[in-house]
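thread: overnight batch results

M.L. [08:02]
morning all. the overnight job finished for the chain we discussed friday. pasting input first so we're all looking at the same thing
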Amino acid sequence: MPISERQKRILEAIISEFMETAEAVGSLTLADKYDMGVSPATLRAEMASLVKQGFLLKEHSSSGRMPTSVGIRYFIDEMLKEEEPDSLESTKLKERLFQKRFNRALFIREAVKALSDLVGQVSVALVDDMIFVAGIGYMLQNPEFEDLDLLQNALNVIESESLLSKLFALYRNDSRLKTLIGDEIGIESLSGCSVVFSPFNYYRGTTGYIGVIGPRRMRYERIIPTVRTLSEFIENSVAGWD
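M.L. [08:03]
and the structure it wrote out:
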């Protein structure tokens, strides 16, 4: 069932607010902060409809609404406006990495660290069955990871070559950047997370992967183009390796 233009605006506002606060969003908050042009009662009715359609979740009778993975997927596919990396920032990044290009392990390690610093989340790379990880400390800045079970589950995957290989192997024949949300990831312990990753042609015809693992509430508008830009730069840089 398609959603109306009004419901799209409401969904976009709720996701924007949720991405900022990590908290459920109520109709009064929407009426106060966003110019919806309708009453709180109408907002509640529209939000209830979005709950029925699976885009929003109401956890209990007194709560506001939170976007479901379906809602976030719709937002990414239909409404996301990507923020291309600043040209000066991109130049500095490439200069930073270019200096390490003749040491393969150091080059990938520096790329992962640069990605993590740029987006403020954990970043990972998998090449030649080696895992590179940076930014574990960023996880603690996300309220979602105050849930110690979620934190431990995510760390177990991040540190596991076999689990990361299993995830990336599902898309070994797909050259596009992928954004997976919640259950789409296919690893139960990451069902509360999202993964944005891209493959790249690596040394001597092998394939590498680089990406970001974090909560479902991530700055996709910045993370997606940054992962894409960095994977393309890695691929171009390693093209001249013997």
